[in-house]
Amino acid sequence: TQLLEQSPQFLSIQEGENLTVYCNSSSVFSSLQWYRQEPGEGPVLLVTVVTGGEVKKLKRLTFQFGDARKDSSLHITAAQPGDTGLYLCAGEVLANDYKLSFGAGTTVTVRA
Amino acid sequence: EAQVTQNPRYLITVTGKKLTVTCSQNMNHEYMSWYRQDPGLGLRQIYYSMNVEVTDKGDVPEGYKVSRKEKRNFPLILESPSPNQTSLYFCASTRDSSYNEQFFGPGTRLTVL
């Protein structure tokens, strides 16, 4: 059983459409991160959220951390083919514990 | 350039033949980890190290060994590989504990026949 459940598992949309990826858990996290991974490469950090209710924006990407710090979402506005990739959420359950728990990932494909 | 390097990038081997995957980082990070990535399961931590000579088990340590004799290197050892260890392996390093950002290597795709 995954500590973090991501949904959907796969998402295919047309360029210009919006999309949302969800990351849910029954555990409370001290921090939660989102990574993007492209084929043949390692994951690259996009953002870290640490405060319940926090919203961070990175150009067309909006990240939200749930008030109870048990869930998070990633919203992409006007998706572009360059947004294609595997999106992973990762949560740190206890502060100062260097073990991150990762979700299984959401594969996003943006068609031109 | 700040980076985490892994070698080899691809490896095909046979059951029982000992192998080592090397990992090195040039960012002076204290914390390093090994993960395996399998379809539908995401990244699962194998081992991690908080400092030189300090290592600890992650979520799936069975069949693996690690060592941390120097700060920059964190090799992953499979003493007797089995087919269920066929996977994509990532090494990662972390600067500090504040937000635990992981810097990942490019990955090693291992196939055990």
What does this protein structure show overall?
The complex is a heterodimer of chains A (112) and B (113). Chain A has 112 residues and is mainly beta. In chain A, strand 4 and strand 5 (44-49) form a beta hairpin. In chain A, 0% of the residues lie in helices and 52% in strands. The mean pLDDT of chain A is 91. In chain A, the strands form two sheets. In chain A, strands 2, 4, 5, 9, 10 and 11 form a six-stranded mixed beta sheet that branches. The termini of chain A are far apart. Chain B is mostly beta strands and 113 residues long. Chain B contains no helices and eleven strands. In chain B, the strands form two sheets. In chain B, strands 2, 4, 5, 6, 9, 10 and 11 form a seven-stranded mixed beta sheet that branches. In chain B, a hairpin with a 3-residue loop joins strand 4 (31-38) and strand 5 (42-51). Chain B is globular.
Short description:
The complex is a heterodimer of chains A (about 110) and B (about 110). Chain A is mostly beta strands.
* Rg from Cα of chain B: 13 Å
Order of helices and strands of chain A: EEEEEEEEEEE
Radius of gyration of chain A over alpha carbons?
13 Å
Taken in chain order, the helices and strands of chain B follow as: EEEEEEEEEEE
Structural class of chain A: mainly beta
What labels describe this entry?
heterodimer, A: 112 residues, mainly beta, 6-stranded mixed sheet, 5-stranded antiparallel sheet, 11 strands, 0% helix, 52% strand, globular, B: 113 residues, 7-stranded mixed sheet, 4-stranded antiparallel sheet, 50% strand
Layout of helices and strands:
The complex is a heterodimer of chains A (112) and B (113).
Chain A: E1 5-7, E2 10-14, E3 19-24, E4 31-37, E5 44-49, E6 55-58, E7 61-65, E8 71-76, E9 85-92, E10 101-102, E11 106-111
Parallel strand pairs in A: 2-11
Antiparallel strand pairs in A: 1-3, 3-8, 4-5, 4-9, 6-7, 7-8, 9-10, 9-11
Chain B: E1 4-7, E2 10-13, E3 19-25, E4 31-38, E5 42-51, E6 54-57, E7 65-66, E8 76-78, E9 87-94, E10 103-104, E11 108-112
